[in-house]
Amino acid sequence: EEIIRDLERLDIELYVRGQHGYWASMRIKPDLISRIKEAQKEDSEVWTIVENLDKQVEFHLDDDNVLWQGTRLVVPNDASLREALLTEAHSSPFSIHLGSTKMYHDLKQHFWWSVMKRDVAMFVAKCLICQQVKIEHQRASGLLQQLDIPVWKWDEISMDFVTGLPQTQRRHDAIWVVVDRLTKSAHFLLIRKDYSVSKLAEIFQQEIVRLHGTPSAIVSDRDPRFASRFWKGLQKAWGTRLKFSTAFHPQTDGQSERTIQILEDMLRSCALEWTCNWDDYICLAEFAYNNSWHASIKCVPFEMLY
User: I need a surface site. Which of 120, 208, 251, 293 has the fewest CB within 10 A?
Assistant: First the structure.
């Protein structure tokens, strides 16, 4: 009976047929959402809006008397509740210390309160980890040659390497960043600096070609691995042409360069938690990047891709 009560509290249903049983369903409800809905009942600002619903058509009550602003849940004026929500949106493994702009655009899709943008900016500005690890990203000086806009997703890609990372227990010490130039979606591939060109080509086939097919064009820097006869021969066999960045002007390949900056910020932000096992969490860093708002496409890369 005690087990049954525990299952009921977890909202798990157990069906038994004869001598055999199986799990029927398991639903997980975020505790923070429930706290917000409960806190609405005692918030004076929320009740002020409720009393004037006829004058504020953008707000409405659902069947459970929960207040929404369009499709966004109204967050009451509770400092601890908003602090918990901002912390979850900023420093959880699924967000990994995003900047204020990305964080605000992600939050405002699901939540609303009157001074959200200001609160987000102040929260990020006060984050000690961000102050320690984030570098100042400045616009490159001079005129840059803009590459043509691709016409299909994952038809043209850009790529580069993140090196100088601490070696993990599995001996990974670098990340191969591959970015779709159209949707801005990216893959972060775990590698070692001593991998041969043939090993890199094998990883490329397994992780990129398997999911997206063979690209028609690749933009990269003048790394020896991409300039080698083997790599050029492999691309020629695939029918892919290479585009190299202008020497000493990596801004030409700005797509992957900017992604590398974001990834390095993520890695440094979580260095204390990840230590020598950052390769265990690189999948979450990839998810966080692809699931966060991107300024150039005005949406998240996942939405653009799928």
Answer: 251
